[in-house]
Specification:
Chain A is globular and about 65 Å long. In chain A, helix 12 packs parallel to helix 21 (about 550-570) and helix 14 (about 385-395) runs antiparallel to helix 16. Chain A has two domains: about 20-300, Amidase signature (AS) domain (Amidase signature (AS) enzymes, Alpha-Beta Complex), CATH 3.90.1300; about 310-570, Amidase signature (AS) domain (Amidase signature (AS) enzymes, Alpha-Beta Complex), CATH 3.90.1300.10. The longest helix of chain A is centred in the last third of the chain and has 24 residues, at about 430-455. Chain A is of the alpha/beta class. In chain A, about 40% of the residues lie in helices and about 10% in strands. Chain A is built from 21 helices and 13 strands. Chain A has an eleven-stranded mixed beta sheet with strand order 1-3-2-6-8-7-12-13-11-9-10, sandwiched between helices. In chain A, strands 4-5 form a two-stranded antiparallel sheet. The interface of A and B includes residues 280, 433 and 439 of A.
């Protein structure tokens, strides 16, 4: 531990003090011994049995349930809010100690609220709302009263965006107010990368969050701490944000689910952000969960608050149960086509820039086989060059010449982390005329992509319902080797709605190197050469299921059919090579 | 007529040739004599009896109906599409000759289509769609195949945005494709101001469009030609666009109705625009009509095409009949409160920058009295300083330093019209960091305004349903004296949905000058001194009824209640001073 000087503190000391302060918020009986911490450091896979060794059976029973089961059990008085909250606080405490995935801990606040909720429940014999007693974790962009929001910036510790300390800790993000009104319990905030614009989870405040499924790899993406926490079952449901893949990458890399809605479906009001003045391509609030049911639960509950009445940026579209049902009616409960019109899927095998590693391609094949066996239609997806979309999107993210990032860094004097020194060097902002021209290019790309989507009806009269594509070209990622974020970024340019589902895990025995592959370009070569079956073994494979703008209910419904079809396919498969750990969790 | 040289043509000659060409598209029997033209020039009010002298009784009968009646009559075989189209083409032809309100005439195309529609109708004994046979006029930003879109720019004559003539006339705006699929007949395009950013209707192509109700005044605003054409009943329904008041100003100035939806409710795809790369505050497609029923008809019909499937910028909100009914249920058919919760209105008497002229204030009083007598609630509206919103919005419109405008002018060498030489002088574009800061200011203003709106529930638990405010501080405007467009611009910054209704007309006998008024500032003084009861006599007074984002159905429904309440109030008024011409037309 670094020596802490009270004043003035250099940035590193301020960060160390903050880390120490966070650890001190963990009660003594939840602290791990040095022996255990050393053991954890050497452990490849921290999930399941490893973390469970620190928990009691009743705690394991609670954290093994998904969000929907938890609220049901509390509603039916099988569990109390305090029991549930305690179990998740303890698990999150252990997760943080072995995985470094939290920025903020406010378990005391959470347990106090849980007790209040139990009290309300026993008084009124009814829940406060549909999220009664459910612990929800938050990416450290969301403001909670009484708690820091640092977004990884040292200069924001104890200060609201680095401003007057007197003004700190007074803000609550609108969506948090909504969650609380629905009965949720907020208890911790999860780690993220400096700038938010990085596919790994690393900053000067807490350092790095590795992948709990395989510590050779990164937790991944800008809601990486959230993904890692959920992989360790220290949470079943959390909020993140997504500007270039930030709720999709961590879901895919950690074997969980996420929903990236179209921006302006959920409230971003009073949520901290990188360069919020860049509002042409907006970051969106997203949901991560250990189950599909969790995603649906949060979306439906939150929209019942009519967030558009208090946040004028939100489009007034209530939760559309009818859309959910409309797609549900297209398949049997086991995912098989039911004699109505089968679903039609596009599959993007590669974006033509960077070929996915073998585990990802195998994952695509598994999904395609399952969908096809279930009687749905599959066509190849050949949209307008994804690389064009990626380049436009990246230009927007960099348009301010990293001015905002450097303003925040300058508050404390902390430097850019080495990985980002080149990308976010301070530069001249883009000329406005160029910016406006870029806007036109973005709109044109969006229109072209939409036209392509509509053109899928030309052959059989049926428009593709959803598209399956990789989240990234690798199953999680070896730190330092995330070369291409095009698979997620293009979807941000299009503002589409996406569900990520876990599909399988990298398997060194199956996913061997294909040394005959001829890379398409230097980037593709770098990525291809970075594939190491041994290192990646156990890395989760998740895929994107993509629908169009504001089609959140539709894509949730379709994802459920896909997951069901995969389970059916798996149950029916005989003689297929499978290994332990390749099972897919099915949400409610 | 200027001499026309074939090549090279200076811009003025090209404009003259284009004007001549347009006039030549009017068939001989619809051409007016020089005597009539001179008579028209001297006539203060061209509407009603004046223009009707050039029409036959059966034509007058047709053009006196509103859009809803027309489609009903065609559907019930009381009229043919050809009869209706002929009557409107002829009226539009005369309107253009006396009022200079058209850019494009394509009556032949229209009549051919009308004949086809009649043929379909007699073959199938059913209409092609809900707009079967209805002539719809278009602001000259909307593309029609085979026809110029000049937007007033000489350089665009015969060229698609000034580009290769080979590529001209091939585009059709998506919304036009939708209207055609619904059975509409397109027949003419209406005049607009150079740059679109001007409260009067003037360009180098056709010159000026004056107000047909009172030729001392301007037709007003950037859909001014459309407003004038409808005042002359050369159309019952038309499309315009609105970036700062462009469908509201001409509606108010011409005694008709308009709907400015939230941008992204209707398709703007393949519609020409000023500086389309400025997409932070977007122009919106709006509807102008001689009746409320016309607005409703077009909105509902167009949304039945699901425009979002082909235009990814459109938000997928279908027409919400339930919302319409929900508000309808709040009043009796005569507009009076019916024992459910009465409606609650805010009234903005002044924006604190420029005090409206006496006719406008009287109009506000008339509406307030009618609403109050009908049993609904009225409160004063004191939102965040409108001037702040206006300044932010204006900065966006000027952010590119008029680069786009000058690029278009340079195609032909035409100059800015004198009125705009100062405002749109070519300047350095805004710095992007400043632009992004301005974006944050805009978002903050929007959030503050929304908070204020919600705060109206503090006293009685009821949030204001809609706000009544001026469109402009004058009843139409004396050319050169439009000093303040804040009343409309702020609403564009907020992206609210608005219906404009006609209320009364300026009356020199009632709306006398209040010489005791102390102007608030220099701008207010200029505006106040510009009021001349004699000049303004007969100038229409329209007002804005404002609801929040994407509340088009709600605001249409509320507007209907307001209009009914005003009729009821008028019918009940005894001994009140009224003059001929102060009647309000009521839409279906």
């Amino acid at each position: 531990m670094a020596t802490i000087r009270v004043f003035p503190q250099p940035w590193a000391a301020r960060a160390a003090a903050k880390r120490e302060d966070t650890l001190n918020k963990i009660r003594a009986e939840w602290r791990l011994s040095t022996t255990d911490l050393v053991k954890a450091e050497k452990q490849r896979d921290l999930t399941g049995p490893f973390i469970q060794q620190f928990l009691h059976d009743d705690e394991i029973s609670i954290i093994s349930k998904d969000s929907v089961q938890l609220v049901e059990d509390i509603k039916n008085a099988k569990l109390t809010a305090v029991q549930v909250t305690s179990a998740f606080c303890k698990t999150a405490a252990i997760a943080h100690q072995i995985n470094n995935c939290l920025h903020e801990i406010f378990f005391d606040q959470a347990l106090e609220r849980a007790a209040w909720l139990d009290d309300q429940f026993s008084k009124n014999q009814s829940t406060v709302g549909p999220l009664h007693g459910l612990p929800i974790s938050l990416k450290d962009q969301l403001h909670v009263k009484g708690v820091d929001t640092t977004m990884g910036y040292i200069g924001w510790i104890g200060r609201n965006f680095g401003s007057d300390p007197e003004q700190a800790h007074k803000i609550e993000s609108q969506i948090n107010t909504e969650l609380l009104s629905l009965g949720a319990v907020l208890y911790c905030k999860t780690s993220l990368p400096q700038t938010l614009l990085f596919g790994e989870t690393k900053n000067n405040l807490v350092g790095e969050t590795l992948n709990p499924n395989n510590q050779n790899l990164s937790a991944g993406g800008s809601s990486g701490g959230e993904g890692a926490l959920q992989a360790l079952r220290g949470s079943t449901l959390g909020l993140g944000t997504d500007i270039g893949g930030s709720v999709r990458i961590p879901a895919a890399f950690n074997g969980i689910y996420s929903l990236k809605p179209t921006p302006e479906r959920l409230s971003y009001r009073a949520v901290a952000n990188n360069n919020p003045g860049e509002n042409t391509y907006r970051s969106t609030i997203g949901i991560l969960s250990t189950s599909l049911g969790g995603l649906n639960l949060l979306l439906q509950a939150d929209l019942s608050c009519k967030p558009w009445l208090k946040d004028p940026s939100v489009v007034p579209i209530p939760f559309r149960e009818d859309v959910l049902k409309e797609y549900e009616a297209r398949a049997n409960p086991d995912g098989t086509a039911n004699g109505t019109i089968p679903l039609k899927f596009g599959v993007l095998w590669t974006d033509g820039v960077v070929q996915p590693h073998p585990p990802i391609t195998r994952g695509l094949n598994m999904v395609v086989e399952a969908i096809r066996s279930a009687g749905h239609k599959i066509v190849d997806w050949n949209p307008p060059a994804q690389e064009v979309g990626r380049a436009i999107h990246l230009a927007f993210l960099k348009a301010d010449g990293a001015y905002d990032i450097h303003s925040q860094l300058n508050l404390s004097g902390e430097p850019l982390i080495p990985d980002l020194r080149k990308s976010f060097k301070l530069r001249e902002p883009m000329n406005l005329l160029k910016y406006q021209d870029l806007t036109l290019q973005g709109l044109k790309y969006e229109a072209d992509y939409s036209d392509y989507w509509n053109s899928t009806a030309e052959q059989d009269g049926q428009i593709v319902d959803a598209v399956i594509m990789p989240v990234a070209p690798h199953a999680a990622v070896i730190p330092g080797k995330y070369y291409h974020t095009g698979y997620t970024q293009v979807i941000n340019l299009l503002n589409y709605s996406v569900v990520v589902i876990p599909v399988t895990k990298a398997d060194r025995l199956i996913d061997t190197v294909d040394s005959s592959y001829e890379p398409l370009n230097d980037l593709d070569r770098m990525n291809w050469e970075a594939y190491d079956p041994e290192m990646y073994d156990g890395g989760p494979v998740g895929l994107q299921i993509i629908a169009r703008k504001f089609e959140e209910e539709k894509v949730l419904s379709i994802a459920k059919i896909v997951v069901s079809a995969m389970e059916t396919s798996k149950a029916g498969a005989k003689g297929t090579v499978t290994r332990e750990g390749n099972q897919i969790a099915r949400g409610a």
